[in-house]
Each structure stands twice: as structure tokens, then as C-alpha cells.
Amino acid sequence: MTGRSRVHYSWVVAAVTFATLLMTSGFRGLPGLLFAPLEHEFGWSRSTVSLAVSVNLLLFGLGGPFASALLNRYGVRRVIGWALVTIAAGSGLTVLIDAPWQLTLLWGVVVGLATAAISVPLAATIASRWFVQRRSLVVGVLTASYATGQLVFLPALAWVVSAYGWRWATAAVSVLAVGLILPFVVLLMRERPASLGLRAYGADEDDSFPAAAGNPFGAALAGLRLGAGSKDFWLLAGSFFVCGATTTGLIGTHMIPAAMDHGITVVAAAGYVALIGVFDIVGSTTSGWLTDRFDPRRLLFWYYGLRGLSLLALPLAFRSPHIGLIAFTVFFGLDWVATVPPTVALTLRSFGPANVGIVFGWIFAAHQLGAAVAAWGAGFGRTRTGDYRTTFIAAGAFCFVAVLLVRWIGAPATRLRATLAEQSPTIREGRFP
């Protein structure tokens, strides 16, 4: 690929990343379909299955910053390749389980840690390395692929579960990971524009951030130390905690069993969740476009506020499964991960392109911590009360807490620029400043 090529190779890398995130995230929607089959076959309660999902979400989030450090140290292609092999192994072995601890080990620990390498921090890393112009738009599109894949593949997986059983669905995940996705990553993924003699798309100068050296574990912890010294880091992490709790943790995990409680079939319920994914493409892409043009803090204010209103209305929507639920899925889909492009933009603004992957990885860890709390808490609440009504109302209220948090996020901290320039090489090498 030369500089005279009509299509900049940044778009090829973005396309490969889009497809990888789309397919891999589709695997993550499978646990929501396993509640009823595992309850029927083994007699496991929803809180028991929710524990495995919660561990998955927690380790998926906590692994994000370390995965970002590994991407910087060992390269995107190598790390994603091994992650796909690990996902295939964990999912394939799930067909043999007969005890709750095995589900928690395989889907909670193994798949949770492996998928951390192929998640939203990867989108931030690719966008910051390969794009200067259209960066927030690319973040929005890549984020949409991640969230949408988890949702739009649910009807197909639900059909496999209904027609052939849950073991065939987990086996299909294993085959797709190594048979379909891995070859594209190996053949087409590249590390940086400089490796092809190119500049990032829209850049006026060459890449000034070479590949990292040193200890990735230390680099991840150094990124946490850098972020922890900033008030805005904690405000972004707190608001993203609410984002994860209300999307992946609550709706992504419990929307299907909640719909089934109201007499909706598993395939129909998966269709409603898939509709969220379809409209998420529009919402996330539009959010990226808006983030390139407007104050990200104001966008977050509206996103969280509108999400809170929709969750408060969800118990009423279940009473009208045609009009009410369709209206909810369309509205919630537009807002699903619209929060990611402005959150990445604010992280990039405060910590610079060299550190955005790792620092945002820690912010994303807060997102998944919220998802883990909500995934387990909603299952526990359903077991204790018999429905999800109280959980949906509480989730809506927490969105308004996030509205307050984003209001306190300050303007870009210019005083950090000198220290960032000094600390960035230290963080990339895995040493504490």
C-alpha cells in the first residue's frame, strides 16, 4: 500500500476492526439466552447464572487497560489472534459443563479475559493511531459495531438454542472465532501507519508515538496512576459506570428474560434486542459526527438524561409489547453507546493520543464494573421479588446521577500538557513517573 493509493489503508484497518468487533461482540450476547435452558436442564437459578455473567463482565472490564498495554507492547494482530483462540477454547469447552463453577470459570474468567482484548478500548486505540481527521466518527462507527454485534446476532443464536440446544450455540461461537474472524485479522491487520510508510489519515506529520517497550503490566498501572490524579477521570469513570450498568449489565443481560416473564418467546425477545442493535448503528455513528462538532460534555448530559427517562418508562412498555416495546427499543438503541465517542474525546483531550488507549481502558473498566453489578443485582432482585420493575426504575434514577457527574467535568486541563509530554514515554515503557 503506497501513499498514491486511492483508499488510505487506515480505512482497511478500520474495516477489519469493525468486522472483528462486530462478530466477537455477537458472542457476548449468548449468556442472555442461556438463563432458561440452564435453569431447565440443571435447575440453576437466575442469580446463579447471573454470577457467571457478572464475573465475565467484571474481568472483561478490568482486563481492558492491560489489554491496551499488551496491544501497545506486542501488537494488535498478535494480541487479537491469541484472544480469538482463547475465546474458541473457552466457548468450546462450555458444552461439557455440569456445575455452576464450570460456567463461571469458562464464560466468566476465560472468555471474559479474552474478550477484553477485543472491545471498546481497541476502537479507541485504532482510531487514535490511524486517524486525525474523522477520529470521533471512526470511534462512533467502531463502537457501534461492538454494541450492535452483541445484539443483532441474538436472533440467530436464539434460533440455534431453540432448534438444536444451547450446546450447539456455544460450539458455533468457537468455530466462528477461529474459522471466520482469525484469518482476516492475520492477513489484513497492520500495527501503525508508519509500518506501511504512511501517516495517519489527515495527519500533517509522521507518527510520534512508537511502539511501546517494557512491562505491559507496569504500563497499565502507570496509566491508572496518571488518570487517578485527574478529577475528570473520576467523573468520566463514574458516569461510565452508570452507562455499563444500564446497557450491557441490565438491558443486554436481562432484557430477554424480562420479556419472557411477560409471555414473549425467546426468539421474539431476541428480535427486540436486535432492534436495539440496528438503531445503535445510527445513534453511535451520529454521536461520533456530533462529537467532532459540539462540546462532548453537553452531549453526555442529554444522552444520560434521555436514557433515564426511557428506563423509567420500560415497565409501562412491557404492558404494550408491540407499540410500547418497539418505541423503547428504537429510542434506547439510538442512545445505547452514544456515550462512547464523547467519552473517548474527553479522555483524548485530557491525556493525549499516546495514553488514550490505556487511560480509557480504565474508564471502560468502570463501565464493566457497573455492568457486572447490574447483571448480578438484576438477577438477584428478580429472584427475590419475582420481577424487574424495581430494577428498571432504580436504573433510570442512576442515569440522572450520571447527568450530574458530566455537568462537573471541566474544560481541557492545559496545565497537564507539560506533564503529559514528560510522562507519556514513561507510561509506554511501563514505569511509574
Descriptive notes:
By secondary structure, the chain is mainly α. It has a single domain (9-196, 213-412), classed as MFS general substrate transporter like domains (Growth Hormone, Chain: A). The protein is 78% helix and 0% strand. It contains 18 helices and no strands. Helix 3 (46-74) runs antiparallel to helix 4, helix 8 packs across helix 9 and helix 11 (231-261) runs parallel beside helix 16. The longest helix has 31 residues, at 231-261. It is globular. The two termini are 39 Å apart. Residues 1-5 and 412-433 have low confidence and may be disordered.
Q: Indicate the percent of residues in helices.
A: over 70%
Q: Write the CATH homologous superfamily.
A: MFS general substrate transporter like domains
Output mean pLDDT: 82
The CATH topology label is Growth Hormone, Chain: A
> What is the end-to-end distance?
39 Å
Give the CATH architecture: Up-down Bundle
Could you give a short account of the major beta sheet?
Answer: none
Structurally, the number of domains stands at 1
**Which consecutive residue ranges, at least 5 long each, have pLDDT under 50?**
1-5, 412-433
Question: Could you tell me the strand content as a percent range?
Answer: under 5%
By DSSP, the count of extended strands is 0
Shape: globular
Q: Give the class-level CATH name.
A: Mainly Alpha
User: How many individual helices?
Assistant: 18
Secondary-structure element order, N to C? HHHHHHHHHHHHHHHHHH
Structural class: mainly alpha
Radius of gyration: 21 Å
